[in-house]
Design a protein that fits this description.
Radius of gyration: 19 Å
Strand content: 25-35%
Distance between the termini: 37 Å
Number of domains: 3
Largest sheet: 5 strands, antiparallel
Strand order of the largest sheet: 11-12-13-15-14
Order of helices and strands: EEEEEEHEHEEEHHEEEHEEH
Helix content: 25-40%
Number of strands: 15
Shape: globular
Structural class: alpha+beta
Number of helices: 6
Oligomer: single chain
Length: 219
Amino acid sequence: MINDRSERASVVTKGASSVSESGAVVTRVNLIRPSERIGMPDHELSKSSWNVASYSEWLDAWDKEVATIDPLVTERFFLMTGLLLPIWKSLDEARTRVFRLKTDDGEVLLGRRIEPQDMTTVAETLGLSQIKLNGKEIYGLVADKHKSYELNGGMSIRRSYVMGEYRIEVAGTLSEGLIEQLKSCGCFTEIISWRKRVFVPTEEDKAISIIDQVTEFLT
């Protein structure tokens, strides 16, 4: 498949089904891309910008993306170490695997890995300072994992289904002055049901840059 918006390619495979809150079985798919794997429900794929492409079109798009990927990938994550049993239930129950890591200077660490997008919740549960994510991490949290990222003043960056498509929205109570600030960062507005709403362009590189600017003054 090729994404009509980003012009990027992926291989789609059947994923593990999940169960909704109502008890219904939700079939899922995996989108395998050159540098990542994204999971989503079947019905969301059908509403997305991903469409079946010919093999030659797909191969061309795939090779173009591969050519732009840095062979050295830097990834940020957190490792909870030390006495974990008292806070075990405060951590993600879906990821209970314990890792043993060794740093470049020889320090050995043993603990549970926490993804950046989950650290905000963990920090809040443990009474720690909020962990600030960068634009790329927030984009992955919102666009790929379909979660919201909380900002100051009760606002958030979230994924919204608008006018038949999924968008990235800066949601909350927004004054005209704040809207102008967001527009200066690269956001755009639309009047929907007589209300002005603010969106971030969905093109990945542009979205990441804009999100970095937005969170600079809203977190």
